[in-house]
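Worked Example 4.2. Consider the chain below.
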Amino acid sequence: MTWSRHITRARLREAAIVSAFFVVVAVFATWPMAREPLGGFPGFGNDTLGGIPSFGWIHDATLGEGDPALDTELQYPYGRRIPNEAVQPYDRAFSIVFGGFDQGLGAHNAQIFSSFVLSGLTIYLLARYLIRDRLASALAGFVFTFSPFHQALGLQYGALASIQWIPVYVLALLVALRSGSKRAAALAGAALALVACTSYYYAWFVAWFTVAVLMAFVARLAWRHRRDDGRLTDEAARRFMRTAVGRVALGGVVAAALFLPLALSSARSASEASVGQPGHPVSEAVRYSTRPWMLFLPPHDNPLLGDTTSDWQQRHLYDMPIYETSVYLGYVALALTGVALWRRRRAASEPGDPDGALTSPADEPERAQWARPLLLTGGLVSLLVMVGPYIPLSSDYWRRWSEPGSTPKLPSIGLVLFNLAPVFRFFSRAFVLVSLVLALFAAMGLARLLRRHGSTTARRVAIAGVAIVLVGCEYATAPPHVWYSDDPPAWVEAVKRLPSDAAIVEYPIAPAISPRSLYYMFWQTKHRRATLNPAERPEALVFAASVEAVDDPAIGQALRDQGFDYVVVHTALEPATRPPYQPPLPDDSLPIGTGEENPWLRVVERTPDAVIMEVLAEPVPSSGVTVSPGTGFGRPEPEGAGAVRWVEGDPATVDVFIWGRSASVAIELDLASFALARRVAISLDGRSRAEHTISAGGFSTIELELGLLEVGRHQVTIDSEPGPQSINATLGIPDFRSVSLRVLEPIAVRIDAGGPG
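Applying the procedure from the previous section yields the following C-alpha cells:
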C-alpha cells in the first residue's frame, strides 16, 4: 500500500467518524425527527405553520401546473401570493427537491436536520485548517452546531437554522487573505453567495463581519510593514491597494454573478410587498437587540438549570420572543477561550515540563496565530452589533423599548446598520458570528490543554470527551424539547372526506397572519380543500368581514355566490400558541350549536372538535331567531354548565338574527361587573332601551324586551361606565387583559306568542 493511499484511507476514516458524530448530534437536537421524519416537526408552530404550505406549493407548481408565486388553494377564490421575499433561494431548492414529501413538511425537516450535520462538519473543517487537531476541531463543531441559538432557531426558521455555510465563507476569506490569490478570492465570493442564498439576514451580518476582519488585516499588515521596514512607502501602499481592490472586486463579481439571478424573484416580491407599507421604527431594533444577561444565563428549557432561570427570563423579556434570547455563550466554552488567550512565559527548564510541553499561544500552528486577531476583531464587532442601535446608559432602556428616546444612550454601529437596512432589525441574530468565533477559540483552548496534558491517545480522548459532555450539559434543551405532531385532528379527517373540489370557510375566521390562521394554513396541506384562509388581500378582507358571523342568515347567499361549499365550525380547537415560546391566548373555540340554526347551512358531519355544514343552494324555508356575541367580547371561557365572556372593548355588541318572518323577541342578559359597580346603558339598533347598575361579584339578570323585529340583523349595544380596567393592575395577577363586564352564555331568547316559534 502506497503512502498516498494510506493518507486517503485515513482521511476517509476521519470523514466517516466525524460525519457519524454530527449525525448523532443532529438526531439528539431534533428528536424525535429521526424516528418520525414526516410525523411532525421540531418547533411550536407559528411561522413554521405558514412556511410549510409555501414549500409544498412551490414544489407542486414548479414541477407541475400552476404559478409558484400564487397558491390558488389558499385565500380562495382570490389566491394567496407566496411571500417570495421570505423564501430564500436555498428554501426554494429544498422545496423543489423535498417539498413533495408530505406537502412541504419534508422540505422543512430536511433543511433543519441537515443544518445540524453540516454546521458541525463545516466548522470542523475550518478549525482543522487553523488548529490541525482533530479532537479540538470536533469540539468547535459541537459548540457551533449544538449552541442554544442554533437549537432555538431550528424550532422556527429553516433558513436561519442553516448556519452551515458561514464557516465555509470564513475559511475561504482567511485563505484568500493569507494567500492573496485570485482563485482564493473567487472561492470566497462563491462562498459568500452561498451564505446569501441561504439567509439574507446572515449575509448582511457577514458583510459587516468581513469589513471588521479586513480592517484588522490591513491595520496589522501596515503595522508589521512599518515595524520591519521602518516606514511604509507610497509605492508599497499603491501596490497593496491595487491587489486588494482587484481581489475584492473579483470576489464581489463572483458573488453577485451567482447570487443575483437566484434572488431576483425575492427582490421583486420584496419591492411589491413594501409598496404602501410603513418602515420599521428604530424601537423595533431596540426590542430585538441583545440584553447582556442573555449571554450568561442558561436557556430557559435547559434540563438542569431551566427551572431556576425560566421565570426570571420571562419577567425580563419585555416583548422579545424567548427563542430569540437563546444567545448563551456557555461557561465551559468561555473558560476554554480564556485558556486560548492566556499568555504565559515558560522557563527554559520548568519543573514538570521536561519534554518542552507546549503552554503558550505561540506554540499553536502558525495559521492559528495569524488568524487569531482577525477572528477576535470580527467577533467583538459582531458582539457590539448584537447590542443593537444604541449602547444603553440606563437599566430601563429595554423595558421601555417602545420609546427609546426616553432613556439615556449612546449611538452604536447598529444604528448605522439599521439606517441602511431597517428590514434587518433582529440584531440578536448576529450571534451566529460570535458563536463561530467562540467555537474556534474554545477549540484553540482545548488544543492547548491537549498539547500539555494529552500524553496518550486515551488521555486526549478523555479530555476532549469531558469538554464536549460539559458543553452539552450547558447547551442541552431537554429533548424532545418541542415537537409539533402532524397527526390529523378529527376535523381534518372529516374535511378530507368532502369532495376534492370543495371550498371551505373555517370559523372562527382568524386574522391574517395570526397563530390561528397559520394553524388553518398548515392543516390545509393535509385536507387540500380550498379555503378562504388567510384573508390578506383587500378584497379578501372585505369578504371575510362580511361573512364573519356564521349565525347570520345573510352570509349564506354571499358564501354560495363566491363558490364556497362548506363551513367548518371549530368547537374544540387546540391552543393557538405554545407557552413559553409564545404568549398564551384565550380559547377561541366556538360554542356548540353555532351556525346550526342558519337556514343556509345543513349539518353533514359532527366530530369531537368541529361541525361540518354544507352551504345550501337555497335556504331552508323556516323562521327563527339566533343571538350571539358580536364585537367587544373576548373568547368564551368555561363556567359551570355554560360559558362566560369578558367584555374587553367598549361598547360591546350582541347580534340578533331574524330569518323567515318578523318576530317579537325578548332576551335575558346575565351580567356581572369586574372589581367595581358599573352603570350600563343598553340600546337596540342605535335607540336607547334601558339603563341598569351592575354590582361587582355575582350575576344580575336583565330582561330586555326588543319588540317586533324585522327579518335581518339587529344589534344590541352594551355601554358601561367606567369602561374596561386592567386585571393585572387591579389584582396583581399575570393577566394583562382589560375588562369591564362578564356575560353568561348561552344568552336566553324568548319569542312572544304570535312569533315564528
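The radius of gyration is 31 Å. The first helix runs from residue 3 to 30. Compare this with Example 4.1 before moving on.
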